[in-house]
């Protein structure tokens, strides 16, 4: 089954958290506020940083911040930053396959992989987020 793993989900959640912050954010703050495992969050942030999706700043006021708004970051970039190249099969991932010379579906798999990549490239992370909840008024009016 084709599905995003938890680490990719954590990466999207961390990016969305940073999008709502003006100051750099620590891995610990993200993990605590989103109820994520700290170690996995820290490693995920390092991968996102290494891919250029976020930057890091050392020091007392350091932390992570986005390099681009979420509407300019594709889902494909996040997945590739965390998991590596997108691929539906071993041959698309560059791994050896003993059927390579006689494979009748390789071209079809390449086409399917290209379509999946194009779809994930076309979806910005911002589209994965729920819209902000409307503010609730504390001044209730009762009609008798």
Please give a quick description of this structure.
The protein has 144 residues and is mostly helical. It has 5 helices and 2 strands.
Describe this structure in words.
- The mean pLDDT is 86.
- A hairpin with a 5-residue loop joins strand 1 and strand 2.
- The protein has a two-stranded antiparallel sheet.
- With 144 residues, it is mainly alpha-helical.
- It has one domain: Arc Repressor Mutant, subunit A (Orthogonal Bundle), CATH 1.10.10.
- The longest helix has 17 residues.
- It has 5 helices and 2 strands; from the N terminus they run αααββαα.
List the helices and strands and how they pair.
Layout: H1 6-19, H2 27-34, H3 38-50, E1 54-57, E2 63-66, H4 75-83, H5 106-122
Antiparallel strand pairs: 1-2
Helix pairs in contact: 1-3, 1-4, 2-3
Helix content: 40-55%
CATH topology: Arc Repressor Mutant, subunit A
Task: Average the pLDDT over all residues and give the rounded result.
Answer: 86
**Morphology:** elongated
Task: Let me know the CATH homologous superfamily.
Answer: Winged helix-like DNA-binding domain superfamily/Winged helix DNA-binding domain
């Amino acid at each position: 089954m084709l599905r995003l793993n938890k680490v990719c989900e954590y990466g999207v959640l961390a990016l969305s958290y940073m999008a709502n912050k003006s100051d750099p954010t620590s891995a610990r703050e993200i993990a605590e506020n989103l109820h994520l495992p700290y170690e996995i969050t820290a490693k995920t942030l390092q991968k996102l940083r290494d891919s250029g999706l976020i930057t890091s700043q050392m020091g007392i006021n350091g932390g992570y911040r986005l390099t681009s708004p979420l509407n300019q970051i594709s889902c494909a970039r996040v997945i590739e930053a965390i998991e590596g190249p997108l691929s539906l099969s071993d041959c698309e991932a560059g791994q050896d396959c003993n059927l390579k010379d006689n494979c009748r579906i390789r071209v079809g798999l390449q086409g399917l992989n290209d379509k999946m990549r194009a779809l994930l490239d076309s979806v910005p992370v911002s589209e994965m987020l729920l819209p902000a909840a409307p503010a609730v008024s504390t001044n209730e009016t009762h009609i008798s």
